[in-house]
From TrEMBL:
Species: Paenibacillus peoriae
SUPFAM superfamilies reported in the protein's UniProt record: Acyl-CoA N-acyltransferases (Nat)
Keyword Glycoprotein: no
Positions of the N-acetyltransferase domain: 3-148
Domain of life: Bacteria
CDD domains according to UniProt: NAT_SF
Keyword Cell division (UniProt): no
Pfam families listed in its UniProt record: Acetyltransf_1
Entry protein name: Ribosomal protein S18 acetylase RimI-like enzyme
C-alpha cells in the first residue's frame, strides 16, 4: 500500500473539509458545524502557530488526518502537544496509514521540543484504545475529564 503522510496545505481545504465532516458527523455522530467554522479551523492550522494538521494521501486522495494543538502543562512546567484528532477512513483503520499518522505526531512533538504529547478518546471507542496500547501509549489514571 503506497501512501504519503505530509503537512496539510491550502490546496487540501475542500478534501480536508469533507474528511473532517466524515469524522465529526459520520464517525462521532456530532452535529455538523457550519462550513465557515471548519474552514476557519483549517486555516488556523495552516498557519502552524496554534497547531498543525497532518494528512494521509493515497493516489491524490486524502484518506486520513491528525491534528496537534500546542499548549502548556502546569504539571510539566513546559509546552506540550494535544493530539486532538486521529482519523482515517474505514478501509485504512488498523493499517500502516493510521500508525504513520500517529508516529508523525509523536515525531513532530519530539523534534520541536514539546515535553510530551497527550490525547483522549471516547470510552466507547475500544478499537482506538487497542490501537493506542499497540503504539505503547500509557493510559492515564489520575484525571477525570469534564467539559462545559
Amino acid at each position: 500500500m503506497s501512501f504519503l503522510i505530509r503537512n496539510a496545505k491550502p490546496d487540501d481545504l475542500s478534501s480536508l473539509t469533507e474528511l473532517m465532516y466524515e469524522y465529526i458527523v459520520g464517525f462521532y455522530q456530532n452535529p455538523r458545524p457550519p462550513i465557515e467554522k471548519i474552514h476557519n479551523l483549517i486555516q488556523t492550522l495552516f498557519e502552524q502557530q496554534n497547531g498543525i494538521q497532518f494528512v494521509a494521501e493515497q493516489n491524490g486522495e486524502l484518506i486520513g488526518f491528525a491534528t496537534l494543538f500546542f499548549t502548556f502543562s502546569t504539571m510539566k512546567a513546559d509546552k506540550i502537544t494535544v493530539m486532538n484528532d486521529l482519523f482515517v477512513l474505514e478501509p485504512f483503520r488498523d493499517t500502516e496509514v493510521e500508525s504513520q499518522l500517529f508516529l508523525e505526531c509523536q515525531k513532530y512533538s519530539q523534534n520541536h521540543g514539546y515535553a510530551h504529547m497527550t490525547w483522549i478518546t471516547s470510552t466507547e471507542n475500544k478499537r482506538a484504545q487497542i490501537f493506542f496500547k499497540k503504539m505503547d501509549a500509557v493510559q492515564g489514571r489520575n484525571w477525570v475529564h469534564f467539559s462545559s
